[in-house]
Amino acid sequence: MRHARELPLSRRGLLAAGGATGLGALVTACGGKGGSDSGGKGGGSWSFTDDRDKKITNDGPPEHIVAYVAAAAALYDFGIDKQITGVFGPTKLKNGKPDVQAGDIDVDRLTSLGQTWGQFNVEKYASLNPDLLITNMFDPGALFYIPDDSKKKILQLAPSCAIKTGRVSMLEPIKRYAALAEALGADLKAKKVTDAKARFEKASEELRKTVKSHKIRVMACSGSADLFYVSNPKINADLIFFEELGVEFVQPRKPDKGGYFESLSWENADKYDADVLFLDNRTATLQPDALKSKPTWSKMPAVKADQITPWSSEPRFSYAGAAPLIESLTKAIQDAKKVS
């Protein structure tokens, strides 16, 4: 739900596949652009066309990659590890444990260039001798978590690669990160990858079946001290995919600029009815215990029924990252009753 400058909840603000056959075809489909002239391994020239239709070239496969943390985590799921030397974005919690967006990658071995919105240590970035910068692109041409005031300096140091992660179904960036990982040398036929893909397909089919028999209305949302955000299922990649599988989402009638969500004052937070609240679980957002102080929150039927489920509103765009999210939403819908 991307609220870019604020939480960065803006892109996604806060910060689909009809039918089993259709889903299988989409998951299996190859996804257009990309590729390496050298097959991703060994010497020779290397190239990849990103989602800006920009062809990135190098004398050989990049060996010093710096990436937005969720991009690094997605690549790791597909088999790219040691080439990633640095990350930016929320990587560690205050207690030193990995942030959820870091997935399974070993964050202790990575150099962090900054954990919060607007932080990017350009000098430290240069010291890593980067030959490729990778990040998400929630809005056309916008490199996520690259600060505007230092963008020019950053982009002069190494080629950049952007993967489109907004206004498309979640399946698309998953396929694109798979293609990028393969170009960088990953084996997409490795058991780790094929097992994750099988789990993703099974979870997706289970969600599709569940929503046919459970007529539950879901509201993807996020809370801050001053505002309540209702996310747009037509813009957020994961919500687009879930809706394609048949999930019924609340559709905000007056989305804010950018289209990712509608921001409401807490006095108007009960504008929309829902049976389940799909609540943004990022560390920058308010969680149920903190939201109890908001009178309107406590009056919501879904809150009264304790039908609140965590929403990883910035998903990891890999089969391994997405499968648990689908399973969690499926269980929430299965366990819910109609209250709106």
Give the gist of this structure.
By secondary structure, the protein is of the alpha/beta class. The protein has helices at 20-28, 69-77, 122-127, 151-157, 171-183, 191-213, 237-244, 288-291, 295-299, 301-304, 319-335, and strands at residues 46-49, 55-58, 65-68, 84-88, 111-112, 132-137, 160-164, 217-223, 227-231, 248-249, 261-265, 276-280, 308-311.
| Strand residue content | 15-25%
**Largest sheet, if any?**
6 strands, mixed
Structural class: alpha/beta
Helical percentage: 25-40%
Enumerate the spans where pLDDT stays under 50 for 5 or more consecutive residues: 1-32, 36-42
Count of individual helical segments: 11
| SSE pattern, N- to C-terminal | HEEEHEEHEHEHHEEHEEEHHHEH
Q: How many angstroms separate the termini?
A: 23 Å
| Rg | 20 Å
Residue-averaged pLDDT: 90
- Secondary structure: number of strands: 13
Shape: globular
Give an account of the 3D structure.
The protein has 340 residues and is α/β, with parallel strands linked by helices. It contains eleven helices and 13 strands. Strands 8, 9, 10, 11, 12 and 13 form a six-stranded mixed sheet that branches. A five-stranded parallel sheet has the order 5-4-3-6-7. A hairpin with a 3-residue loop joins strand 8 and strand 9 (227-231). The longest helix is centred in the middle third of the chain and has 23 residues, at 191-213. The protein is globular and about 60 Å long. 50% of the residues are buried.
